[in-house]
Amino acid sequence: MLKAAPQPLPNAPRCNRLESSAVPTPKRHRSPENPRLVRCDAWVQLSWLIHGFSTRAGGVSEAYGGKALNLGYTKHDTHAAVDENRALLLRSLGPAGIEGKAWPLVRLRQVHTDIIHRIDRAPERLLTGDGLVTDAPRLLLAVQTADCLPVLLADTERKAVGAFHAGWRGTLARIVEKGVGAMRLHFGSQPEHLRAAIGPGIASCCYAVGEELREQFHSQFSYATNLFREATESDPVRERYPLLFMNARPPGHSDAGRTIYLDLREANRRQLLSAGLRPENIIPLDFCTACRADLFFSHRAEQGVTGRQMGVVGICDG
Q1: Which of 228, 233, 231, 229 is nearest to 257 (CA)?
Q2: Residue 209: which pLDDT band, with cuts at 50, 70 and 90?
Q3: Is 219 helix (H, G, I), strand (E, B) or coil?
Q4: Which whole-number Å values give the CA distances from 106 to 55, 68, 313, 318, in the listed order?
Q5: Which of 11, 169, 190, 255 has the fewest CB neighbours in a 10 Å radius?
């Protein structure tokens, strides 16, 4: 069993558990701290389930400042460092990494789609898509993120799980809603028996988008109005010289000072509700990757030069 020491963060929600693995780091790259995971308290009590959302803390990569747990093969990092980080992650997940041979880590070549694969054994090649489902034990399903949302599903009756990568494109394509459908199709899962964990990702405080994207969401979702908010940014130059910003569109000024923000977490929560999940069984983990770039990798906050974290879920034997 994994011996975990809770290490709460400032403003962390009660449903989150931040843990530090007791497994020592390899001697070749000595790190000041071990990998830390974010877990759902309600899920930790499911003895048949393994899950976790990685942070950037406790790895061996040196490409992104300090010793980082980068889990993606990015152009800035070395394959050796990423492989070592993945081994550290597996060991921090307890039975998945310490009972003899480590469990296979099944991942995808993610392309921002609604493609979902059923997995019965470790694939011989890297599959393309953005969702994975399985009812086979001793496999770890993983999705990589660096602002997009990792969404995990667990069927408490059928003992089946799913992992989904939900950026704005995947959300627009209803990836998690279709994920619920895939679990119903393959395993007979009923929505009332499903639990969902929406992992760390960019929050509405930082996710500025364009008007065109808002229009796309409005064309697909009746509740789209609730997914967006607007903010007017103060611009001293505009306020002092308003004539410089005049144009022919009514009411006479451009909207350059207006910013539109998308709540990607709420968009996926609403999809899960539409698919039939009970509200109390949906846990959104309240971490913004852009606000907490000290703890998570963030594509926006770090202008694209960043690593990848993972959301991981698997089934124990029995």
Answers
A1: 233
A2: very high
A3: helix
A4: 19, 22, 10, 20
A5: 11
Residues 6+ apart with CB under 8 A from 75: none
> What is the C-alpha separation between 118 and 141, in angstroms, rounded?
10
**pLDDT tens per residue across span 39-52:** 999 999 999 999 99
Q: What share of the chain is helix, strand, coil (3-state, %, to 5)?
A: 25, 30, 45
Give the pLDDT confidence of 153-185 residue by residue, as tens digits.
Answer: 999 999 999 999 999 999 999 999 999 999 999
Q: Residue 14: count other Cβ atoms within 10 Å of its Cβ.
A: 8
The CA-based dihedral angle spanning residues 167, 191, 50, 75, taken in that order and rounded to the nearest 10 degrees = -10
Tokens, residue 293: 């770039």
Of 103, 139, 148, 101, nearest to 120 (Cα)? 139
Half-sphere exposure at residue 117, Cβ-oriented, CA atoms within 13 angstroms: 20
The tokens for 17 are 């558990």
Beta-sheet strands, E only, within 178-305: 194-198, 208-209, 228-232, 258-262, 282-284
Token pair 């940014």 is found at 233
Q: Which domains does the chain have, with CATH numbers?
A: 19-199+263-315 (3.60.140.10), 208-261 (no CATH)
The confidence score (pLDDT) of residue 232 equals 83
Distance in angstroms (rounded) separating the CA atoms of residues 165 and 178: 12
Please tell me the predicted confidence (pLDDT) of residue 264.
98
Cα separation, 183 vs 191, in Å, equals 9
